[in-house]
Structure formats: C-alpha cells, structure tokens
Amino acid sequence: MKLVSWNCGGSFRTKYRSLDLFDADVWIIQECENPSLYPESELCSRFQQYLWIGDNRHKGLGVFSCQGQRLEALDWSDLYQDHKLRYFLPCIFDQNLNILAVWTHRNNSPTFGYIGQFWKYLQTNGSNFQNILIAGDFNSNVRWDLWDRWWNHSDVVRYLEDRGIVSLYHRMAQEAQGQESKPTFFLHKNSAKPYHIDYYFASREIASQCRRLEIGKFSDWIHLSDHCPIFVDLEL
C-alpha cells in the first residue's frame, strides 16, 4: 500500500498530476480546494472516492482513493463543538486501515493553536487510535517546545508512543525529534529557511511494515508549493 501526504498550497486541481510519479493508493492533501465545486475538472473524474472538509472552499483537507478502494468517513466525536478543532479527517480505507488526515491551524486560539489543536483532539479521540496511520501538516516541531506548556510537540509524541504509535520518518531515518536532516517545508519558499513540520505516525505493527519513506526535493517541488510531499510504502 502506498500513500502520499502533501500540503499543495492550493489549486490542487492544477497540480495533482505531479503526484502521479508516486503511484499512491491514498493521497492526503492539505490546502486542497473542495473538489465538488469543480465537477467539470479532471480532478473529479480522476477520483471517484474522496473526502473533504474545510471552512474555506479553496483551502481545506482532502483524502483521495486513487485505485477505487472504498473510503469512508469515521464518525469520531468532537467534545469541543463551540471551538471546533481544525482540521482532522478520520476515515477508513478499504474497510481495513484507519487513517487520520491532519492539517492543524491556529484556529484563533490564544493558547491551543497548531499542535495544541492536535493535543485536544487526542484527549477526545485517543481511544479510537487503533490500527491507525496519522498523516499531514502539523505545523509543529520539538524545537518550538515551550518550557511551561504541557502540550508541546514532545508531549504529543510521548502521548502517541505510550499508545504504541510512532513517527515513521524518525523510525526509518534513525533521527531524534528536532534533529531532522530532511526538511518538509521552506518558509517563504526560501531554501535557507527549512523546517520539518509534516509527519506520518503509525501504530507499531503498521510502522514495522514500512518499506520506504521519501521526502520530495526542494528543487522538484518549490514551484508548486512551500511544502514537499512525503511518500510511504507499506507492506500491509
């Protein structure tokens, strides 16, 4: 099974062909427009199975099944309806694998922005994290941990690891959190401002079957987005 996760920077319907080289079964796309608003586009004719959420019709979170396998949304609870967490899209692929697509936002929260949004989501839905793969743009890195905050990036990683869920990149690259040698994001599309803020996390059984993880090169993708795609190959 092959997956690709990418913050496309908008206008996915004009960029999706660039991902064909990965031949992935599932595409997890951040900053993706709502495909249903473009019924005449090739994007809709290409993907018969897809899910999308978002408040902005031009930039939301989408999951696409590329080989026709069944893709269904999961009805996980949200205890924070008054301050809806953004954006998390749980689904099940081929009636077998739970996938949580992620694109964290500041969400106008004075305290729980970005990784704080995910921390809150974990408190609500952590019990659902069985046989799961989590992927997307987290807008976070351990380098931005704050000493007096209990829901730092490190705390989230520890929470997941305590439940048998690990980062695929760090497992494959044998690198520590915050010491990533390969960036996924370039601020202002500047090669001198690299960051690693996009991740895959997976249950240990799934992680043990990861055969390949590849991050796109700056020179190949920067004309399309400030993020590079991450491709994984799982022998499920």
Q: Can you tell me about this structure?
A:
By secondary structure, this protein is of the alpha+beta class. It has a single domain, classed as Deoxyribonuclease I, Chain A (4-Layer Sandwich), CATH 3.60.10. The chain has 6 helices and 14 strands. It has helices at residues 42-46, 115-125, 153-162, 168-173, 204-207, 218-221, and strands at residues 2-7, 26-32, 49-56, 59-65, 71-73, 88-93, 97-103, 132-137, 165-167, 185-186, 194-195, 198-203, 210-215, 230-234. A 6-stranded mixed beta sheet has the order 3-4-2-1-14-13. β3 (49-56) and β4 (59-65) form a beta hairpin. 42% of the residues are buried. The mean pLDDT is 93.
What are the defining features of this structure?
236 residues, alpha+beta, Deoxyribonuclease I, Chain A, six-stranded mixed beta sheet, 6 helices, 14 strands
Radius of gyration from CA coordinates: 17 Å
Number of strands: 14
Poorly predicted parts: none
- CATH fold descriptor: Deoxyribonuclease I, Chain A
Helix/strand order: EEHEEEEEHEHEHEEEHEHE
Indicate the proportion of strand residues.
25-35%
Distance between the termini: 6 Å
CATH class: Alpha Beta
Strand order of the largest sheet: 3-4-2-1-14-13
Ordered list of secondary-structure elements with their pairings:
Layout: E1 2-7, E2 26-32, H1 42-46, E3 49-56, E4 59-65, E5 71-73, E6 88-93, E7 97-103, H2 115-125, E8 132-137, H3 153-162, E9 165-167, H4 168-173, E10 185-186, E11 194-195, E12 198-203, H5 204-207, E13 210-215, H6 218-221, E14 230-234
